[in-house]
Amino acid sequence: MSARDFRFLELPRKMPKELPVQVRVQGWSEIYGSFAPAGATAQAERCLDCGNPYCEWKCPVHNYIPNWLKLVQENRLFEAATLAHETNPLPEVCGRVCPQDRLCEGACTLNTGFESVTIGAIEKYIVDEAFKQGWRPDLSNVVATGKRVAVIGAGPAGLSCADRLARAGIQADVFDRYEEIGGLLTFGIPPFKLEKQVMLTRRLVLEAMGVNFHMRTEIGTDIAFEQLLADYDAVFVGTGAYTAVDANLPGQALPGRLEALPFLIANARQILDSDLKPAVPMDFSEKRVVVLGGGDTAMDCVRTAIRLNAASVSCVYRRDEVNMPGSRREVGNARDEGVKFMFNHAPIAIVGSECVDSVRLKDTQSGVEKTLIADIVITAFGFRASPADWLTTHGVALEESGRIAVTKAAPFQTSNPKIFAGGDNVRGADLVVTAVHDGREAGLAIARWLKAAKVTQAELLTA
Ligand code: FAD
Ligand code: SF4
């Protein structure tokens, strides 16, 4: 071990600068800044190179974390960017939105006693900085195979699949019903976690790799699924999970009650200045907003409501704080930004005559009922699978839950061998990084199935 291996003793964990609360709630910028090169190098030097990289194993895409940390220490930025992309087609996204405390950083050896390495922030730094300096994925050795694959859905699963197909010399045509790529990265996750520019840059990178995007094109409506099956050598379905869990609350049809995802989508369109943005700009001035639910979607709703100038924002969750499904970091950020939490309270009705005026709640411990005044109620109870009709009519088997069933023999191949699937439509609502994993593996599996690519040992090892 060298002296450098003990840097963590003298150098504490330090995240990039955070926007002060008073500033960040006035706008939509990401609240975490970026490392300057010296800061990234210093934080990368905290890696112990412990020999048991639990961080790698806990990372769902098994990033070569200690290896790219070493490259950052040695100022070999472009090599770090190339290595980061070997395992992760969207590293700058995962570096921003992964719940690192539960994944790589939670498993870091230093986490017991010395605070983990800032793995996510360094992953973001590597790619942002490499892009800024002109680095791009090098596909100069890729030989075109003449094969073509249709990818349905431009979310993280579809984009990761398209990336791997392009690297295997397969033409990827990505179809999405939305006007921009990203799926929930663009239309769900708000810009204070992931600025819109990140996906706009990634679109340019993927297009330069040869990926074609067909936006505002809904498969099953604008183009029949059988048309894709006829025109392409294989199809990847990365359509996500969009059925909102319905609590069937009395009064939920009242004006003033909003569903989480349509609310976040409308806000994203307003920020993107899309032609589909709301006719009347969204503004919650003087509104008392209550968000029902305790997951990441609920946290994104409360923090969005704060930025829309709400007079007050409360989050009601039926269990205690320890059992909240939302990331600890996001709960802390919401609290810092002025959100009030009511734990151990379950909603029993949304109340009002012509529009919402309150929510009736029950204390889940004492059974006592109470009323919380509200002008706007946003329900965020999670999402279930939303399988399209055209899947089963083309021989794609579904699980009982509606999720797409994939075979064990070829990763992410469905019961129709020409159709592959991955991401939330296979797992149920999950994480960006697991969707990235599935898209990556499905892209490789398609390449093998089409025998289009000489699949390398390194790729097999990450499969
Ligand atoms: P999606 O991202 O949903 O993409 C599916 C795409 O398919 C969409 O663009 C959709 O328009 C398109 N599509 C669907 N049907 C069709 C069709 N018939 N024709 C054409 N296009 C179609 N995860 C994290 O790791 N960290 C977070 O901080 C985080 N925050 C979240 C916040 C919110 C509000 C939500 C809802 C989820 C969050 N998640 C987070 C979860 C994460 O976003 C998802 O797990 C991930 O995006 C799933 O990726 P996907 O590619 O499977 O699906
Ligand atoms: Fe950590 Fe996510 Fe990056 Fe893996 S992809 S190293 S879990 S931030």
Features:
single chain, 463 residues, alpha/beta, Fumarate Reductase Iron-sulfur Protein, Chain B, domain 2, FAD/NAD(P)-binding domain, 3 domains, five-stranded parallel beta sheet, 20 helices
In words, what does this structure look like?
The chain folds into three domains: 3-132, Fumarate Reductase Iron-sulfur Protein, Chain B, domain 2; 148-241 and 385-462, FAD/NAD(P)-binding domain (3-Layer(bba) Sandwich); 245-382, FAD/NAD(P)-binding domain, CATH 3.50.50. The protein has 20 helices and 15 strands. It has helices at residues 7-10, 21-24, 37-44, 54-58, 65-73, 77-87, 91-97, 104-107, 119-132, 156-167, 184-187, 196-208, 225-231, 260-272, 296-307, 328-336, 389-392, 424-427, 432-449, 457-462, and strands spanning 148-152, 171-175, 212-214, 234-237, 243-244, 257-259, 288-292, 312-316, 340-342, 345-351, 358-363, 369-373, 376-379, 383-384, 419-421. It has a five-stranded parallel β-sheet, with helices on both faces. The protein has a five-stranded parallel β-sheet with strand order 6-13-7-8-9. The mean pLDDT is 94. Bound molecules: flavin-adenine dinucleotide and iron/sulfur cluster. Flavin-adenine dinucleotide is lined by residues 97-98, 152-158, 175-178, 183-185, 188-189, 193, 218-220, 238-240, 261, 264, 296-297, 300, 388, 423-424, 429-433, 435.
Uncertain segments are: none
The CATH H-level homologous superfamily of the largest domain:
FAD/NAD(P)-binding domain
List cofactors, ions and other ligands.
flavin-adenine dinucleotide, iron/sulfur cluster
Shape: globular
What fraction of residues sit in β-strands?
A: 5-15%
Strand tally, please?
A: 15
CATH topology title of the largest domain: FAD/NAD(P)-binding domain
Average pLDDT works out at 94
Integer count of domains = 3
Please tell me the CATH architecture of the largest domain by its name.
Answer: 3-Layer(bba) Sandwich
